[in-house]
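Tokens help. Our protein:
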Amino acid sequence: MRIDIVGAGAIGLLFAGELSAAGHNVHLWTRTEEQADWINRHGIELEHHNGLRNTVKTGIEAGVLSRGWAEKAEGSAWVLLAVKQRHLTSGLLDSLAFIKESHVPVVCLQNGMGHLDRLASYLSRDQLYAAVTTEGAKKLSANQVIRSNPGQTRLGSPFEADPVKLTEIADVLGQAGFGAQVAKDIEREMHRKLLMNAAINPLTALWRIPNGELLTSEYRRGALEGLISEALAIYERLGIPYDADIGEQIKEVCRTTSGNISSMLADVQRGEETEVDFINGYLVEMAGKAGMSAPAHEWVWRLIKGLSNT
């Protein structure tokens, strides 16, 4: 099966490497010619949480996004959109016209919220699928990635896409070693992930600490709990369902990923723009629509934005 993956960050490299190792024909689209050339010459190097390493060279081909990628992906069985929300530029979105014409199903792997409605303006709603993943991955170089925390990937149809196709891609990912399942309510899963990211990510980025260290003092735990409580008040006002023990679930994520660096901290360390606009910023927007304020989330949003001069 041919699968096109757009974006060669940590998650893109991880999915490309594992799917290729499982025997699929993977086309990986990168933002730079240097990364594409390096992957074509050296393959993808995967390191697993148990220390096992392997290099995948067969069944994978890398290309540059700026060179008509979507036209070449018309014959693909699936497109996995693994770029961060900030990379959903007008140029990339405009290029999706070829994908819309061929009606290739697209799985969206972005953090945060708001991207699906935006993508629905460029693609048919019935070809859009959403994925929420807790896979832990760290990109070491242009072609090296560590799978630090095997997680779960929940798949769903936010609009009216074919549920049979969901089972197909879940099976494909399962065969490649991912814990993939079709979610009964993908919107609920997305709001759950939004809450986790909004509580954990900005604090780890501001304090420059791995996830587990959020629980090491009463002040850090208090800040974490404050962000959770404020978000839940927004959810309650808007009628968004959540698990009664969601606060403990978030703390358990901190424990099970104790040594992991959040994606927001990784962006800060690299001096790159973060996804805070689509996480905490999105919650602030939700609060405004609900006629509420969200001072804690607005404060961490502004602090993260202030780390950059732009």
About this structure: The mean pLDDT is 93.
